[in-house]
Amino acid sequence: MARLARLALDEDEVGRYAMQLSAILEHVDAVRRLDTADVPPTAHPFPVENVLRSDTERPSLDREAVLAQAPVAENDRFRVPRIMGEAP
Amino acid sequence: MTASPAPELGSLAGIAASVRAGERSARAVLAVSLDRVRELEGDLHCFNEVTVEAAEADADAVDRLVRSGLDPGPLAGVPVALKDNLCTVGIPTTCSSKILAGWLPPYDATVVSRLRDAGAVAIGKTNLDEFAMGSSTENSAFGPTRNPWDLGRVPGGSSGGSAAAVAAGMVPLAFGSDTGGSIRQPAALCGIVGVKPTYGVVSRYGLIAFASSLDQIGPFAITVADAALGLEVIAGHDPMDSTSLDRPAPSLLATLDAGVSGLRVGIVADFLSEGSECGDAVVAAAEALAVAGAKVDQVRIPDLLLGLPAYYVIAPAEASSNLSRYDGVRYGLRVDGPDTETMNARTRGEGFGAEVKRRIMMGTYALSAGYYDAYYGQAQKARTLVIRAFEAAYRDFDVLLTPTTPSVAFPFGSKVDDPIEMYMCDLCSIPSSLAGHPAASVPFALSPEGLPIGVQVLAPALGEAVMMRVAASLEAAAPREARGPVSP
């Protein structure tokens, strides 16, 4: 689960979270066991549909200001380490 | 140790009237507020950052408007505090997380600009449980906030810094966010008023997302009238938030003193546990409303108890998705690695605290192939059952009453090792969050040990006006010593 969530954990954490998550799952089990045959799901309290804005140009965030907050930026881009599989 | 009453800054309307009339400068009001912060911040740790220079500049701008004969607005010169998950241009916004330490947002939250446009003066960013996940502020990466009623106890959370700052008289108005109770629970534990509006009444633009279908911004204040004014100022449609309701801001102050005569008030019996001081306060509150002319009855709504387990699937699921953006690429912390995936995982492993990691993993699990239907799908259906249960109850009642919290403020460390025990704090506040309904906590009584107890008023969607009327009646019936401001 930690790998799927991109979380690097140490051994201690893995043991502790495994225990706590089991307890949480047990607690929310009432939901899993619920008979909901005729109940539709709610994703959102008030269904608001097709919210559109007029198709006009607006200034977006300033590029310099945004890149100034990046851990590493280069040539107007965010710089990241090697992506897996690429040549180094 | 017991708290003693603190000097009051006066009502928001009083402060604004004197500043608008030029009788008192915004700068002088700010000085009183900052003096109180200097006196108590060392004990309480309400703030991640106090922005003295920016506040002085904002106060001077208000004073210049007054001198040139212009009206700075309904909150002219009112010092306010902002939860540190509301984006503020050029002022660090951290969510009390190491992963965002030092981040300077390139834009203001809509709420922040509306407050400035109304003449308010923001004095700083308040402490919270990391990414608003928690009920005690013990999950802050920068250390907990203390409760001004008893420094050995938590102020509640996640908006604990905002609640404690108002309760200690540092500011007369503060803002927080509420996902499952994060405004109402700390308001109750700190003896002040806290309001979660109907979902969509206040823009979430610039509120750092935790669970997008639940998050709402709302006010903290000493009195119901001040909370109502604070909410009127920030409410209203915003095209920058596609879930913002396209309707005018609710009018609350106009009907605040209309009383409760003839209103049907339901006490939710499912949340009254035998011999609990918080349950006793609800019964006393209902009696006070009956004396004021309301028709009071008990009601059983057992499906509301599905709220807690449903919430602890839905909120982590939405959080795991929202927090995937903290990947060490565009902002915040980066811990390097030989490749991008390792960099992502190391950054997140080091940058997030324990509760955030727990919820991300819980949410990832609930959304993963093979478990999605059993957990997330089922929780969404349980959410429908909660909404239906409310619908049925509101056919017979105009408002519902519950305790805000199952217990008064608890000592530091007493729940921190047991996530479930901590989650139980939100038992009474979660159902309205899932339904998107408004809810307010009003200080109503003191426990035998002298700690404040809040009563929660629930109303159907967009029922803010009637909810605040009931809240005002409760306030009128409550003993003065049950609410702040207090000195630790």
Which features does this protein show?
heterodimer, A: 88 residues, mainly alpha, two-stranded antiparallel ribbon, 3 helices, 2 strands, 5% strand, B: 488 residues, alpha/beta, Amidase signature (AS) enzymes, eleven-stranded mixed sheet, two-stranded antiparallel sheet, 15 helices, 13% strand
Question: How would you sum up this structure, described in words?
Answer:
Chain A is mainly α and 88 residues long. Chain A has helices spanning 11-27, 29-32, 63-67; strands spanning 73-74, 77-78. Chain A has a two-stranded antiparallel ribbon. In chain A, strand 1 and strand 2 form a beta hairpin. The mean pLDDT of chain A is 89. Chain B has 488 residues and is α/β, with parallel strands linked by helices. Chain B folds into two domains: 4-259 and 435-487, Amidase signature (AS) domain (Amidase signature (AS) enzymes); 320-378, no CATH class. Chain B is 38% helix and 13% strand. In chain B, the strands form two sheets. Chain B has an eleven-stranded mixed sheet, sandwiched between helices. The model of chain B has no long low-confidence stretch (mean pLDDT 96). Chains A and B meet through helix 1 and helix 2 of A and helix 9, helix 10, helix 11, helix 12 and helix 13 of B.
Quote the average pLDDT of chain B: 96
Helix residue percentage of chain A: 25-40%
* Number of helical regions of chain A: 3
Q: Which term fits the overall shape of chain B?
A: globular
**N→C terminal distance of chain B:** 8 Å
Q: What's the overall geometry of chain A? A: flat
Biggest sheet of chain B, open or closed, and with what strands and sense? 11 strands, mixed
Number of separate strands of chain B: 13
Low-confidence stretches of chain A: none
CATH superfamily of the largest domain in chain B: Amidase signature (AS) domain
Number of helices of chain B: 15
Please tell me how large the radius of gyration of chain B is.
21 Å
CATH topology descriptor of the largest domain in chain B: Amidase signature (AS) enzymes
